[in-house]
Amino acid sequence: MLQESPTSRDRESASARDLALVRAVLDGDAEARATFLTRMKRVARMLTYLNQRLGSRLAAEELEDVAQEAIVSIWRKLGSFEGRSSLDSWTYRFCQLQLMAWLRRRDRLPRRLEDLDEVERNAALSRPDPDPWVNEWVYQCLDRMEPELAEVLQRKHLEGLTFPKIAEVLETSIHTVKARYYRALPRFRELLRLREERGR
User: Fold this and answer.
1) What whole-number percentage of the chain has pLDDT above 90?
2) What's the CA gap between 53 and 36, in Å, rounded?
3) Where are the alpha helices (DSSP H) in the chain?
4) Taking every pair of C-alpha atoms in the chain, what is the biggest distance, in angstroms?
5) What is residue 117's predicted lDDT score, i.e. its pLDDT?
């Protein structure tokens, strides 16, 4: 029988934690709900990124409305989350769909994307930038990393926290946070390179 790789086990463990979080939220756990709402702050940044990919079709005020609609949609569908991917990857899809729906309603969808089928459109929206910290590929790569390394990258680049603040949140030393960060970077870059090669 083949042995499961540590990376695969770590990835499943991270998804399992997200699934446990979602179930706790659905059960009415106040602490879990607060954690979940903190995670949902990433929705605005995801939408900003996607909007930029489409040529900044929406103004900041409109993006706020789209973010609210996306969060409502995520909340309504929360019971369907099965932990097959990270909560971030699952959320990213809602952001894509909500933004496209908004643009269709406003008749502001760029013609070049309007003519694409759903698979091609999603591929266009998922194409990575040189520094793609909000791209879905990023979340897929983070899913494949050791959870303690992925979390430091997420706190640093997706939430914009400083090393001291990350250390405070994780209840560990700044030295440990920095060590994890500099271990995580080459691992992340290699995973992203491999993902980009598969996407070409």
Assistant:
1) 24
2) 27
3) 6-26, 30-39, 42-53, 60-76, 87-105, 111-114, 118-126, 136-143, 147-153, 163-170, 174-199
4) 55
5) 47
How far is residue 121's CA from residue 27's CA, in Å, rounded to a whole number?
Answer: 36
The average pLDDT across 173-194 equals 89
Q: Let me know how long the chain is.
A: 200
DSSP secondary structure string, 106-125?
Answer: TT---HHHHTS-HHHHHHHH
List, in order of start, the domains of the chain with CATH numbers.
Answer: 8-128 (1.10.1740.10), 145-200 (1.10.10.10)
Cβ-proximal residues to 72 (8 Å cutoff; 6+ apart), any chain = none
Q: Helix 87-105 vs helix 60-76: angle between axes, to the nearest 10 degrees?
A: 120
Average pLDDT over residues 145-173: 83
Q: Give pLDDT, residue 6.
A: 42
